[in-house]
Amino acid sequence: MRPIATLAVAGLISAAPAQPPAGAPTAPAAEVLHQTVEIDGVSVFYREAGDPGRPTVLLLHGFPTSSHMFRDLIPRLAADFHVVAPDYPGYGASDMPPRSEFAYTFDNLADTVDALLDEIGVDRFSLYVMDYGAPVGFRLAERHPQRVEALIVQNGNAYTEGLEAFWDPIKAYWKTGGAAERDALRRLLTPEATRWQYTAGVRNPAAVSPDTWTIDQAGLDRPGNDEIQLDLFYDYRTNLGRYPAWQAYFRAYQPPTLIVWGKNDPIFPDSGAYPYLRDLEDVEFHLFNTGHFALEEDGVLIADLIRRFLLARL
Question: Integer distance in angstroms from the first to the last C-alpha of the chain?
Fold first, then answer.
């Protein structure tokens, strides 16, 4: 008989902030290293903390952010795990090679992360995937299923469910690849749109630091970065064609999976979270009463859930 997934509703009903369980870390003091490695002539930045002899947790960021989104999570996990969080080319502190020299596709982003892991000697890891991190991470899992010890999924899709109204203008661009449809997406690169990603659906916008969208927008405003982002918007269509293979990976390899999802996210709503339950057996499922960047409001609780989940399974 197929095991029943564990379901939870952390912060789902109450509008009050979810409280961390007893024993959750409150004052992390782990040293976080800020390092770079050269991959095919591209300097790739990554944050690293914890003992490399412990199980590795690979944190993969979304759009339009960087490993900065994990700035508080990393030290909270580092006492128990080796934590690695890279910036993709074109993001954060990694190089932004010109489009004539580096094709900004999800295949290439996954190639870069794959090469980084080899370069720093990481053979096995648990994957935390969020937003763009999902198609990057699931490519790694599809290539190296034996290397993935567990999944943590936070507002990142592997199913067509959940690609709702927000995606309509992007889908229009997928259909034509035309200049008019491409230009229509430039509004998603504005300061207003970046701030909206952080504040839409949260309980208390004042609790979200403006450093988040300010740092992200500085990256988007670099000359040429807008075209990079538009290339990736177009290439996102290739992810949908990979969904069946990723779902087959879930069914065949059954990685233990922790889902920690901001249910009020207008980009990846919770309708994209439930389909994972169709294919995975060992699932712990939590919805939070927050938005796209769930770590901003519920990072302490999410960190403790990750620690407890991985320590029980690795």
Answer: 24
Domain boundaries, the chain: 6-313
Mean pLDDT of 28-36: 86
H or E, element range at 42:
strand 42-49
Give residues with Cβ within 8 angstroms of 259, minimum separation 6: 152, 153, 154, 273, 276, 283, 284, 285, 286
- The contacts of residue 294 (CB under 8 Å, 6+ apart) are 154, 155, 260, 261, 262, 265, 288, 302
Tell me the angle at which helices 237-253 and 133-143 cross, rounded to the nearest 10 degrees.
50
Which residue type occupies 47? R
User: Cβ distance 117 to 125 under 8 Å?
Assistant: yes
Q: Are 106 and 232 in contact (CB under 8 A)?
A: yes
Q: If pLDDT is split at 50, 70 and 90, which confidence band does 245 have?
A: very high
* pLDDT for res 302: 98
Q: Which residues are catalytic?
A: 292
Taking a C-beta distance cutoff of 8 angstroms, is the pair 291, 269 a contact? Answer: no
CATH classification (class only), 6-313: alpha beta
Is it the case that residue 12 has pLDDT exceeding 90?
Answer: no
pTM: 0.92
